[in-house]
Amino acid sequence: MSKVRENLAEVVDATRRSGEPLYLTKHGKPIAVLVDYELFENVVERLEDYMDLETLAETEGEIGIPWEQVKRELGLE
């Protein structure tokens, strides 16, 4: 961790160039991961998609509210 503090700009640049995550440790134990921003955004987007699919699977078979009823209740007709 102290090496990262001393050379943060260089470490960030190297991580972006390599595209590989950098695992930060303290006393030999992992405490954080440094990844390129685009990779992070991609991972978060995929995780959100997965969570949406999981929620959809959990609600399969449930009866929903018809779209016409929703519009009527919201005064959109």
Please indicate the percent range of residues in DSSP E strands (runs of 2 or more). 5-15%
In total, the number of strands is 2
How much helix is in the residues? 55-70%
Overall mean pLDDT stands at: 91
Strand order of the largest sheet: 1-2
Assign the CATH topology: YefM-like fold
Identify the overall geometry: elongated
Number of domains: 1
Helix and strand run:
HHEEHH
Give the structural class: alpha+beta
CATH architecture: 3-Layer(aba) Sandwich
- The radius of gyration computed from the alpha-carbon positions, rounded to a whole number of angstroms, is 22 Å
Task: Point out poorly predicted stretches.
Answer: none
Total helices: the number is: 4
Straight-line N-to-C gap: 60 Å
CATH class: Alpha Beta
Oligomer kind: single chain
Largest sheet, in brief, is: 2 strands, antiparallel
Q: Can you offer a commentary on this structure?
A:
The protein has 77 residues and is α+β, with helices and mostly antiparallel strands. It has a single domain, classed as YefM-like fold, CATH 3.40.1620. It is 60% helix and 14% strand. The protein has 4 helices and 2 strands, in the order ααββαα. It has helices spanning 2-6, 8-18, 37-59, 67-73; strands spanning 22-26, 29-34.
